[in-house]
Design a protein that fits this description.
Blueprint lengths: L1 E6 L21 H8 L4 H22 L8 E3 L5 E3 L5 E7 L2 E7 L15 H7 L4
Antiparallel strand pairs: 1-5, 2-3, 4-5
Length: 128
């Protein structure tokens, strides 16, 4: 099983996503359309990095060219490869993008830890 993590340490310093548009040529048209709808640059960059990362891992694991990697989604939105017996999953949050590839069902999640706003917590959660 391969697990890869990438950290974007300079995410806050990126002022324009235009320089990253060149990487869209490695993704299918429908994915590029979804990426183009992102409003926040951080969301765009994390999603772009996740897609590129999983393509690199799948290409390495299966010996495929990028153009041969056809990623589909199941009814729950989980991505899969219909023609190859490999499992994978990606996640991104904050400065982190993570991916895992394996021969059996796999899952991975990353979440940026942020301070809890107690006023909001009190409003939505019961004391018990």
């Amino acid at each position: 099983m391969d697990i890869i993590c990438i950290r974007f340490t300079l995410l806050e310093q990126i002022t324009s996503i235009s320089e990253y548009m060149v990487y869209l040529k490695f993704l299918p048209e429908e994915k590029c359309e979804r990426l183009s709808r992102y409003i926040r640059k951080g969301d765009f960059l994390r999603s772009l990095a996740a897609d590129l990362l999983i393509r690199v891992l799948l290409g390495k694991q299966l010996g495929l060219k990028n153009s041969d990697i056809q990623i589909e989604s199941n009814a729950y939105g989980k991505p899969y490869l219909a023609t190859y017996p490999v499992e994978f999953n990606v996640s991104h949050s904050g400065e982190w993008v993570v991916a895992v590839v394996g021969q059996s069902p796999v899952g991975i999640d990353v979440e940026k830890i942020q301070p809890i706003e107690m006023d909001i917590a009190k409003r939505f959660f019961a004391e018990k």
